[in-house]
Fold this protein.
Amino acid sequence: MTQKITIEPVTRIEGHAKITINIKDDGSVEHAYLHINEFRGFEKFCEGRMVFEMPLITPRICGICPVSHHLASAKAADAALGVEPPRPASLLRELMHMGQIIQSHGMHFFELAGPDLLLGFDADPAIRNVVGIIQSNPTLALQAVNLRKFGQEIIKTTGGRKIHPNFAVPGGVNKALTVEERDDILSKLDENIATIKAGLEIFKGWAAQNVGQINEFAVFSSGYMGLVTPENSLELYDGKIRMVDKTGSQLELFPASNYLENIAEHVEDWSYLKFPYYRKMGWPAGVYRVGPLGRLNTCEKIDTPMAQEEFIQYRKMNDGKPIENTLHFHYARLIETLFAAEKVRTLLEDADILSKDILNTHHNYQGEGIGVIEAPRGTLFHHYWVKKNGQIEKLNLIVATGNNNWAMCEAVDSVAKRYVKGPDVTEGMLNRVEAAVRAHDPCLSCSTHAVGQMPMVVDVRDLQGNLLNTIKRG
Amino acid sequence: MVKKFIILGYGNPDRGDDGVAYYLLQKLIRQFGNDADILTKFEEVGVCEVNEQIDIWYNLQLIPEISQDLAQYENAIFIDAHTAEIPEPILITKITPKYQNSPFTHHLTPASCLSLAEKLYQHAPNATLVTIRGYQFDFSRELSPQTNVLADSAFEEISRLIAE
């Protein structure tokens, strides 16, 4: 009798995910599914709102990455109103964005993913967490907390507010940077770069000891997508969108305004989240990955020296071809964090960063605008159709996690097939399935935070739906 | 010197009942605050003094850095909404330091924050979690009628905890 195992976080009304694993009679996995039950009413909610409100409203989509939505929204509004921000405003927006990358990536590696890697998937859950790491290296743990705080302070300093940023507006930003604020950030940069580099050494040390696991854990081919500079360097704030195939050969290079010509969305009846794919290759041949792994497979180099040095080492792992190992999301994420920190210095040393020329009020109404940005999790699109009076007629959002939907599903299926052997499903097996999703750093919470422990529940059911066993974590 | 109370409210006030903590913090400021200006700035300044005994803190969610602040207090009260999986309309429970991984995303529990405070800064306050049942989590800045009523009762409980 085939068994069905369900892993489901509870105590959340929406924005959570469920994993279902179908087990055959011989204990092997037939298939595993990641179901995203995310509430997506946001687009409807915004119809009729004024376009200048959107950079204020859209951060409320998510309490985890509000800055990404704030900036993508401002860029969409810029395009819809036909207004180019002055260069200093773009620098300031990018500075805020780098703060977001640092805090998000830093937290993910040290507090979320690090324990999986450093303490092992089979470690006692009581210690397989950041406290376990604290006990072994309390200094590093403090540095990790400070790294996240540093990123948050950049956001607060640029935006003037800790949460719900009111900073980027159509045509620019509404707050300039002072000399004192610039110098304060600069004074803390070196210690935080040291923390990031320590994280990289930790990961590389772990990777050297776990080559086998890395080469077995959710390794599969796909296309890749990300923003690049005109020279195909890593780009997180602006630029064109580049798509490459599994060999790293370019498929497309296009501006954000052409995304609908290149990206289509597939629907499955077992998930509310759609599956974006490269239109010209069709579904499922055109599937792609975004986020740190996707971006470092899409770009050809990195323009900051320390990150470029790490990038060269990174790409050597597969002789310059794309890296396909899901666990190397963590490696790529750390390289990006280093890039973001170096970019902070570049931005702060630009003379224009202190300019008061931060807003362009001359509009040239276009009616439609698309803003794209590389959020920590991947490429984020905001697409607005705007009436002449400034009201939003309709909008479309492709969130970063949505771009990785196929990848997460594939990773879950791959890991489940490799490690889950029913009917006795161990904690270690389930940890690995969970880790497959976590490597992508998904944002599924949609900004509701009702209590609160996020335990995982595994229901083992037969095909008739009878509950055979329940395993609860937390 | 260790201050007596920190009251931490978290949740999204743009998502209906998810913002119940936000509204309760406002009530606390009005009831116990020395400075009316706090009402306009508490959500932006991190830890904010209400009076000599009580500080408050608000954010959309719990974050690791709060562990550094927690270590400065004798007592902490966490306020949040809960869903129907918890049967009690208002749940008040003592919590102890225990770090819990989130399955997928950036999410911290009160117990995890206490654990970080204890491990990183060698002190975790005596802590209580007050959660209030939410009924509507749509895009709205108002509480549902049911949660509104429960919030008033929760406020009385929180006031009693502070007075003890």
